[in-house]
Amino acid sequence: MYQQFGVFLDRFGFRCINELKLEENDLHDDPSFIVNSVQSYVRTGSYDIAKMEEREREIRAKAEEQLSHRLSGVKYHFYQWILKQTRRAVKNRENLRFARTKVFGVARNLIRGMGAQLVRMGLLQNERDVFYLTIEELIAFGEGRGVTLNFGELATMRKREFSILIKHSHPQIDSF
Predict the structure, then answer these.
(1) What contacts 106, CB < 8 A, 6 or more positions away?
(2) What b-and-e string marks burial along 46-76, b requiring 16 or more CB atoms within 10 Å of the CB?
């Protein structure tokens, strides 16, 4: 089981909540989401894949039967063609989203690596502070054309400003 979990993390460990936010922890960082999900399936006993697939087939068969009673002839065939095209489009959309998420996972790891290197160089205190720098600043630094080496101060200032922005954009509700 442990080996299977490792294989799962190798294939899908780049996934996370808010996948398009590079600063988010992925499943490699915090696999508790998956562990809790599996525990929930085990507790409820709802992890029989064959039963889930059979239930889906029954739902689909019932829907197709209802459809065949409501549509016939050209309308039925046109509907079937539209349904086939829609399923293909949804599959392609989801495959594209999955690929995009993989790319963001790679970018997340690259930027974290940059953060770790900046910590080793003494330019940042915490590798996660790299997310308070812009991509342009990181590229310029790497190319030797950066305008500052005070990344720590820059990150601290931006963290402070970010917390102020969050506070003002999400005011606390005192009536609760």
Answers:
(1) 14
(2) eeeeeeeeeeeeeeeeeeeeeeeeeeeeeee
pLDDT in tens, 84-106: 999 999 999 999 999 999 999 99
The answer to whether residues 26 and 9 touch, using CB atoms and an 8 Å cutoff, is: no
Cα–Cα dist 166/17, whole Å:
19
**What is the rounded distance in angstroms from the CA atom of residue 77 to the CA atom of residue 83?**
10
Domain ranges of the chain: 71-176
Contacts of 12 (CB under 8 A, 6+ apart): 27
**CB count in 10 Å sphere of residue 141:** 19
Query: Whole-model pTM?
Result: 0.73
